[in-house]
Amino acid sequence: SGPATNSPAPASATNPLSKPASLRQIHIVMGYIPNVQFAAYYMAVDKGYYKAAGLDVNFDYAAVNDALALTAQGKYDFAIASGDEVLVARDKGVPVAYVMAQYQRYPIAVFSKVGRNITKPADLVGKKVGLPGKYGSTYIALKAILYANHIAEKDVNVMEIGYTQAQSVATGQVDAALGYAMNEPIALQQQGVKLNVIQASDQYNLASVGIVTAQKMLDSDSATVQAFVSASLRGLADVNKDSDAAFAVVGKYVKEATDPTNAALLKVSLDATIKFQIPAAGNQLGQADPNVWAATKKFLADSGSISPSADVTKAYTNQFIATFPTR
Fold first, then answer.
1. What residue ranges define each of the domains in the chain, with the CATH number in brackets?
2. Contact (Cβ atoms closer than 8 angstroms) between residue 270 and residue 98
3. What are the C-alpha distances in Å from 186 to residues 107, 179, 182, 205, 274?
4. Pairing assessment for the beta strands 195-199 and 128-131 based on DSSP bridges
5. Is 0.70 topped by the overall pTM?
6. Which of 21, 213, 237, 273 sits 20 to 30 Å CA-CA off 156?
7. Share of the chain above pLDDT 70, in %
C-alpha cells in the first residue's frame, strides 16, 4: 500500500470539520502502481478531506483481474474501475455498482506516426494495429471504434504486442497502436515524435473510470459511501482547478514525479488526465452520464459481451454526487 495516512489539514473555511474521534478504515483497490491518474484521491488524503469525513483511506495497489469480485465480497470497500468492466462483472453475477465518475471520456487513443497517414478509423483497414492483447480497455476501445464505424475486426491486422505500444509505433513494428491517451502518445510526443491521434471517445464514448463498491455496501452503509464520494469529489475538484498544486501532492505518492528526468512528462500526463475529468456542459462533476451508460450497454450487448436484457440503470447511481456543487 502507498502512504495513506498523512496528517489532516488544520480546520479552516475549506476544511471545517474537526477530526472525528475514531476513523473508519477504508481500503480501495487501485491500478498496480501509484500513478498520476490517481491524483484526485491523493489530494483528498493530503488535504484531510477523508479524515474530516471520518475515513482513514488505504490505497491497495494490486494487478488483480478479480478486483471487482473481491470488492463485491467485501475484501475491498471500493475499487477504481471503468463502466464497461462494471457491466461485464454484473452480467456474470458480481454485485457491484458505480458510484462516482472520475473520467467523463474513455481515455484510450489510437496513435500513429504522421507518415502513416492514419487520421480516421477507416484508415486502419489493412494496417498493423498493436495493443497489449485481446483484453482490457485498449481492446474494448478498439472494438468500440470499429463498431461505431462499421469496420469488421478481421479487416484490421490486430497484433498483440504486450506493453510495447510506444516503441512499436516509434520503430515501425506496427502502423498504429492503442494506449492510454495520457501515457504512450504523450511520451512519444515529448520525445519529438509527430503523431496522429484518434481519441476513442470521439468515435464512441464508453462509461469510463470511476469509483465502484459492492451492492451490499450501497444497501447497508450508504453513509460511508456518501462520505467517501464527497471527499473524493473535493479532491477531484481541486485537481481540476490547480494542476500545479496537484502535481506537488502526486510527488508524495509517485516517486518518479520527483525525479527531474521524469517530472516534465508526468506533469504533461497529469494535465492530459484532467481533460478527461472535466464534465460536459450541463453535467455535474462526478456524474455518470445516462446516455453514455446506455451506449456502453448497447455496444457490449451487440458485441456479445453482456446479455441484451442487462438493466444498465442498476449498474450506476448519481445519488452520492447530488449534494456536491457543480464545478
1. 24-105+207-314 (3.40.190.10), 108-203 (3.40.190.10)
2. no
3. 13, 10, 6, 20, 14
4. unpaired
5. yes
6. 273
7. 92
